[in-house]
Specification:
Strand order of the largest sheet: 1-2
Number of strands: 4
Shape: elongated
Structural class: mainly alpha
Distance between the termini: 92 Å
Strand content: 5-15%
CATH class of one domain: Mainly Alpha
Order of helices and strands: HHHHEEHHHHHEEH
Number of helices: 10
CATH architecture of one domain: Orthogonal Bundle
Largest sheet: 2 strands, antiparallel
CATH topology of one domain: Arc Repressor Mutant, subunit A
Length: 315
């Protein structure tokens, strides 16, 4: 993406106090004149997104319009699995860095429309005007690149006090490892896209508030959870059974209805039903031939096959 670079600080300040030390990272910055992407610190230092989601958002923002960003294409491009990439895409959707909608093409094919937001909630900036074309034989005008801002002189460090007497050596206590919450499994997805099934799933989610007023979902949550409900319907689960599984035994204090529904749709997904085996055809009873008294199987008494053939040849 060839765009003009804007003025920016030489380094990004840490959002967490106490993490900047004289022994931390040192930035050796240079001015980019082509093939660069501007990323806001609200994304690069996001406090709730995983590192995979942040890197995936930066990669998608660096792609040109029209580039493919499906889960399979991203899994072929990066070493992460499809499940991990799908979880990262859902994180970006939850924080409004990404929006995915299911659309039907004029030919009837269903496609996923992906929109990337480099700054959620901000008004989009119109596309930059193309570079002016010059006449043949005349050199193109050279754009002056603003010089990098002069580095401010570092303040003189105060003289270190005399070292105190070392304390007696004690056994080092290992620092506590912060608890990392387990990654949420991806939402179920239907094996084959079906517009009628997707519409039924959307209507089911939007109508949950009739049975339980606390299950009032926003339009974004309905679009996010509709494929998971469609996966239930694809496995021959009746809509009333899906509605009962989502609304039964709700907790007294329901803070995040969309999160609870996502957990139930994933954890309670029933297995697919296999086709019922065809019962064996009952065998015909044994009959005695009226002519040769030979035993043969037939639903009614009569003559065996050989005797019927002899009569046909004699005629």
């Amino acid at each position: 993406m060839d765009t003009q670079q804007v003025s920016a600080p030489s380094r990004a300040s840490s959002r967490v106090p106490g993490r900047v030390t004289p022994f931390g990272a040192i930035h050796m910055n240079s001015v980019h004149t082509s093939r660069f992407t501007i990323v806001g610190n609200h994304l690069a230092q996001h406090g709730e997104l995983s590192l995979t989601a942040i890197g995936l958002a930066v990669h998608i923002q660096s792609l040109p319009d029209g580039a493919k960003t499906s889960i399979k294409v991203l899994a072929d491009r990066f070493p992460e699995s499809e499940a991990r990439i799908a979880a990262a895409l859902r994180e970006l959707e939850e924080h409004s860095y990404l929006a995915r909608t299911l659309e039907r093409l004029p030919g009837g094919k269903l496609v996923t429309r992906t929109i990337s937001y480099n700054q959620p909630g901000a008004a989009p900036v119109p596309a930059a005007e193309p570079e002016p074309q010059t006449e043949p034989g005349r050199p193109a005008p050279v754009r002056a690149t603003p010089p990098p801002p002069a580095a401010e002189p570092e303040p003189a460090e105060p003289l270190a006090p005399e070292p105190a007497q070392p304390a007696p050596a004690t056994e080092a206590t290992p620092a506590p490892v912060p608890h990392q919450p387990p990654a949420r499994p991806p939402l179920p997805q239907p094996q084959t896209p079906d517009l009628e099934r997707h519409r039924a799933a959307t209507d089911l989610l939007a109508g949950l508030r009739r049975d339980e007023p606390r299950l009032l979902l926003g339009e974004h949550d309905v679009r996010r959870l509709a494929p998971a409900v469609a996966a239930w319907l694809e496995r021959d689960v009746h809509p009333d059974a899906v509605r009962h599984a989502l609304t039964a035994d709700l907790p007294d204090r329901l803070k995040q209805p969309a999160g609870l529904l996502a957990h139930r749709l994933t954890a309670l997904l029933p297995p697919p039903l296999h086709a019922a085996p065809t019962p064996p055809r009952p065998r015909d009873p044994l009959q005695n031939c009226d002519r040769c008294d030979r035993a043969f199987r037939s639903p009614e008494p009569g003559r065996c096959r050989d005797c019927r053939t002899d009569l046909a040849e004699a005629a």
